[in-house]
Amino acid sequence: MAGQQVYLDHNATGPMHPEVVAAVLPYIQGGFGNPSAPYAIGQENHRAVDRAREQVAGLVGATAGDVVFTGGGTEANNLAISGAFLGRSEPMRRHLVLSAIEHPSVRETCAWLEAVHGAEVTVVGVGCDGRVRLDELAAALRPDTLLVTVMHANNETGVLQPVAEIGQLLRDRGVRFHVDGVQAAGRIPVDVAAIGCQSYSLSAHKFGGLKGTGALILRDPSGVMPILQGGHQERGWRAGTENVPGIVSMGAAADVARRDLSANMAHGLALRVIFDNLSARIPQCWRNGHAGLRLPNTTSLCCYHADAMSVVLALSSVGISVGTGSACASHSQEPSHVLLAMGLDEQAAFCTIRISTGPENTVEEARWAADQIAQAVERVRLVTAPEDIGGCGEDCPCFAHSSR
Amino acid sequence: MAGQQVYLDHNATGPMHPEVVAAVLPYIQGGFGNPSAPYAIGQENHRAVDRAREQVAGLVGATAGDVVFTGGGTEANNLAISGAFLGRSEPMRRHLVLSAIEHPSVRETCAWLEAVHGAEVTVVGVGCDGRVRLDELAAALRPDTLLVTVMHANNETGVLQPVAEIGQLLRDRGVRFHVDGVQAAGRIPVDVAAIGCQSYSLSAHKFGGLKGTGALILRDPSGVMPILQGGHQERGWRAGTENVPGIVSMGAAADVARRDLSANMAHGLALRVIFDNLSARIPQCWRNGHAGLRLPNTTSLCCYHADAMSVVLALSSVGISVGTGSACASHSQEPSHVLLAMGLDEQAAFCTIRISTGPENTVEEARWAADQIAQAVERVRLVTAPEDIGGCGEDCPCFAHSSR
Question: Predicted confidence band at B385 (pLDDT cuts at 50, 70, 90)?
Fold first, then answer.
């Protein structure tokens, strides 16, 4: 594999599927009309957007009328949460509940609503397996709770959250439920009706589409206010000229992901076990998060005494791309809030790398990369001062640390 | 030209320049890294974004550090106006001034701030030549005025606004000046320092880039609050994974537009005169807006007694795309607020088509299209009941109606 690039950070972004590239090229090299224009090539673009709307809806069990295309997953989360808060019909209903492991686009939106717009926010913890505590969430609900927001799959650990159970809990309580599905859609089966959420976020580039396009599945728009003001595109939910190439790419990627879902999941699991097994091969190393209830493509690995950024850069020098926790936070020097919420200490958080595969990775690549990771950790440890091990202790029965 | 497509609605959107397509394809077919990731292909993408930042800044006389990439021109206008209002340090400073001919992304943002956030809004009129009345704008300023927002070039008429004079007027008054430059950037010389504005909006697809990418030139960010919350991308001004293909396309398009600016302007003027002359060829037809202070690519033509939508659809049937006023408002049945503000009546507004050319249009195409427009107007008039002519009357000395 020497000299080749092995990309293992698909939770940050990934390549487009060749079929998606083929679908989008005509809209880059020629078919450029404005979908709002009444003449023929405008209407052709309008139909392309409508087709993509059907395709994206089909990926998550929604109807086309629920799909609001946005400029990405972050905007979709902002629209779902800020839009619901700022547009609410009952001003006194201002309590928001989120989990401790949400993406910054959810955390920061809730923090902004608290700091600027008078929201009251409750953060619900997770177990050391990385799953939201249902009992704590139920206890957090108040008569003035407006919205609960919990992600479907965590971007750092891949751990799946009990969204269907939460949907069940909130049913008939008049509390909105938003699910950030950015990491889940296209990777595991998603049925928004079964979850029972009022809104669900997707990001095209996380499942083979272009960057710069996302969607909010807005199943219940009552009391939601647009966050971008302007033209009447997206039935008034999102102003701005439709990003036709991005939207077409998202539709095509949704179709491919839906068709290949079972095969991709099986393939992902075959690769994941190779990386999961590093926790047994590397001394003082464990895998973070629930063993089974996890995205098929994600392994979060704490290699104690091995600074993650050093490991990532060592791997980069041999052509391997893996992440340090979350790309969205990589410019900060803060330890991962996700891993801290799971009970890891700062040292353990700073020693955690994230390996996330995609359909194009091969078993051969994965085996080679796993060897390289083991070697990189060993080399980095030679120059890293040993410190005490973190986590929630030797007695902890959680799956996360079972391999220590 | 029969059987060919002649696209004359570049103010709605336009094709990408072949050099821009060539620049962006590598980021669609291969180079897909996340710019926030620390490994090699992440950093390659980071450098591509930085390069585009320099290119976009260079188009409008800004520095790279001023450029905030957004999901489009609408988002840039929202950030400039809502961001300044919601982030202001003096809560009592809540007066906004805009012109009567602003784009919906400016008008609706101001209306939203008024309805939801307690802003007070003053709308300043335009003359029958489509230019903002400077004396009225000066008189509208109050001690609590926070921001004035005026577009550089109008999307429907192409009329250039006196932005440098407004910048001069506001200098040293402590009033922010935002300029919506979406239709101007890449088509006429722009120097944000000479204008003296605090912020300036651009949209990539209006000058040969991809849809779904814009930029706010944020020269003075003091007291501005981000409108999308999340990660720390764009120095904290705009959360969300950077849309690398869109940003690269915007940078490449900026370079091409800057290089070809003089040639494109001369070519545009050569085409424009062909369409301007229709006001002499077609009975009861006039051109809207100032004769000279206008984008080189835009002709707004009122063909009285000829319903614009009927004319547009008739032209579409022979392969010609022209607009009805603004694409952003085309789904509404409202008459153009721009034309009404200029003194036209509703009937005249509904009989106005917009012809906006691009660098790829040829003189031959333009001549053929002009003939087709004249014929289409004649045909539509055969089935349209005559009514009184609108506008500001036979005695009006304005340039707009000089050809009647």
Answer: low
Quote the number of domains for chain A. Answer: 2
Residue A394 and residue A278 share a domain: yes
**How large is the ipTM?**
0.91
Domain shared by B251 and B317, yes or no:
no
pTM: 0.93
List B residues 291-310 in contact with A (Cβ-Cβ < 8 A). Answer: 309
Measured in angstroms, the CA of A46 and the nearest CA of chain B are apart by: 12
Please, are residues A82 and A131 in contact by the beta-carbon 8 Å criterion?
A: no
d(CA B269, CA B245): 32
Q: Final residue of a domain: which of A199, A226, A257?
A: A257
d(CA A123, CA A107): 9
**A211 with B9: Cβ contact below 8 A:** no
User: Which residue is listed with tokens 């079964």?
Assistant: A194
Residues B270 and B213 grouped into a single domain: no
Residues in A touching B36 (Cβ below 8 Å): 12, 327-328, 330-331
Q: Does B322 touch chain A (CB under 8 A)?
A: yes
Is residue B404 within 8 A of residue B308, CB to CB? The reply is no
Cβ neighbors of B101 (< 8 A, separation 6 or more) are B126, B130, B132, B151, B154, B156, B157, B337, B338, B341, B342
Strand A298-303 versus strand A352-356 pairing type: antiparallel
Q: What angle do CA A345, A347, A349 make, to 5 degrees?
A: 70
Please list, residue by residue across B61-83, b when 16 or more beta carbons sit within 10 angstroms of its beta carbon and e when fewer do: bbeeebbbbbbbbbbbbbbbbbb
- Residue A1, domain member (yes or no): no
Identify whether residues B215 and B337 lie together within a single domain.
no
**CATH for A397:** 3.90.1150.10
Range of the domain at A283: 6-13+261-401
Check whether residue B234 and residue B279 sit in a common domain.
Answer: no
Q: Is there a single domain that holds both residue A213 and residue A333?
A: no
Interface of B with A in 209-268 (CB under 8 A): 210-213, 225, 227-233, 239-246
pLDDT tens per residue across span A329-380 = 444 578 999 999 999 999 999 999 999 999 999 999 999 999 999 999 999 9
All residues of chain B having their beta carbon less than 8 Å from the beta carbon of residue A111 are 229
Inside any domain, residue B336:
yes
In terms of Cα–Cα distance, which of A34, A14, A2 is closest to A249? A14
In a domain, B37, yes or no: yes
Mutation target to probe the B interface, by most B beta carbons within 10 A, among A10, A13, A16 is A13
Q: Is B335 in a helix, a strand, or coil?
A: coil
- Taking CA atoms, what residue in A is nearest to B106? A230
Judge whether B187 and B296 are in contact, CB under 8 Å: yes
Q: Which residues of B touch A86 (CB under 8 A)?
A: 116
Confidence tier at A389 by pLDDT (50, 70, 90): very low
